[in-house]
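Design job #97: recover the sequence.
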């Protein structure tokens, strides 16, 4: 066991608040600096945090006491900041996606390998008790051999609540690239890597009307698919059906279901760390709630950084760059299939991440450096 991993955060927008709250109680990491293009936001992030300083991006990247950079910038800047951190000899953990394209993400992984630093990538929701309890049930054989899975996210569109939703309706946006990382990361964690996909996409409206904020009532153009369906073939032979939509209202089905020869599982929202896992057994009478049996208890965004800090040297973090790249490759391949009307092989792969045994990470936990 050793000292906590010293980290710095770049990007102090809305999502940073959840990360900072986790870092306040995670003993495996030690927050030393924050930076943002808006100095007032960086300064605000230091309030009430002893030993944490506000810095410019350049100052944080060059700081000798920062060992890992937590990259919470906008998606289009993910690879740029990651490459600067790696060039400075620092490991990096980024919000999803790893980069805006697989080509740009590949440069990050290649640079990290040459520099002998570690890359982590959100979402880390898969490390919580929801997905991990379901994974433990699969590994114990509660549903027999897995056969199929479904992953469904149906909402009417972010323009109803977001004051500036333009990005979600342009290439690089859409429901799959926005929310798909949570669902696809969960499917790979549960069932292993994907080898090929078939996808299709549609767009129900050419414009959207902003429903809140100073631009309320303004029409914005839609230039990307807003309903995406894909069939993912896992290396194990399991078939997962993915439905990601900004075009409908809601669904009553579980966010993720996994079906096996002798049982089925219904999982909670993969955008959460917890929630009930339901089990229906062959010849059983109704659904049963499984007791929590795996995952980090009381987890929140940023637990993937602590998990990285506790990862043995040379091992891939559970929320690692290799998994983040594979998830991005799967999603790009679904969109490629939809555009080309053909099955598309997924050329990357990732090992199914190691399971998380039921445990808590908090003030009494000790951290070890990840190398």
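Job complete. Output follows.
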């Amino acid at each position: 066991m050793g000292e906590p991993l010293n980290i710095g955060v770049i990007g102090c927008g809305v999502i940073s608040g959840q990360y900072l709250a986790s870092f306040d109680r995670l003993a495996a990491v030690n927050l030393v600096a924050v930076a943002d293009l808006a100095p007032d936001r960086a300064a605000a992030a230091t309030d009430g945090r002893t030993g944490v300083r506000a810095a410019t991006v350049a100052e944080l990247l060059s700081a000798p006491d920062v060992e890992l950079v937590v990259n919470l910038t906008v998606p289009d800047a993910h690879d740029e900041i990651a490459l600067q951190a790696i060039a400075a000899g620092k490991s990096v953990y980024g919000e999803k996606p790893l980069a805006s394209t697989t080509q740009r993400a590949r440069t990050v992984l290649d640079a990290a390998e040459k520099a002998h630093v570690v890359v982590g990538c959100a979402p880390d929701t898969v490390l919580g008790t929801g997905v991990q309890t379901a994974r433990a049930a699969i590994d114990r054989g509660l549903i027999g051999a897995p056969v199929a899975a479904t992953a469904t996210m149906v909402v009417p569109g972010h323009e109803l609540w977001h004051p500036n939703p333009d990005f979600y309706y342009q290439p690089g946006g859409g429901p799959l690239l926005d929310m798909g990382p949570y669902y696809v990361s969960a499917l790979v964690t549960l069932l292993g890597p994907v080898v090929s996909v078939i996808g299709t996409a549609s767009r129900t409206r050419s414009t959207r009307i902003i429903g809140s904020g100073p631009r309320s009532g303004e029409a914005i153009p839609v230039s990307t698919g807003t309903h995406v369906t894909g069939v993912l073939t896992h290396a194990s032979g399991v078939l997962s059906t993915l439905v990601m939509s900004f075009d409908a209202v809601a669904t009553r089905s579980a966010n993720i279901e996994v079906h096996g020869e002798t049982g089925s599982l219904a999982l909670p929202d993969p955008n959460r760390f917890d929630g009930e896992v339901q089990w229906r057994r062959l010849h059983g009478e109704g659904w049963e709630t499984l007791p929590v049996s795996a995952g980090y208890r009381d987890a929140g965004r940023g637990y993937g950084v602590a998990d990285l800090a506790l990862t043995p040297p040379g091992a891939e973090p559970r929320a690692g760059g290799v998994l983040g790249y594979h998830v991005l490759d799967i999603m790009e391949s679904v969109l490629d299939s939809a555009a080309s009307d053909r099955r598309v092989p997924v050329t990357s792969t990732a090992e199914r991440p190691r399971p998380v045994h039921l445990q808590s990470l908090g003030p009494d936990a000790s951290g070890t450096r990840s190398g």
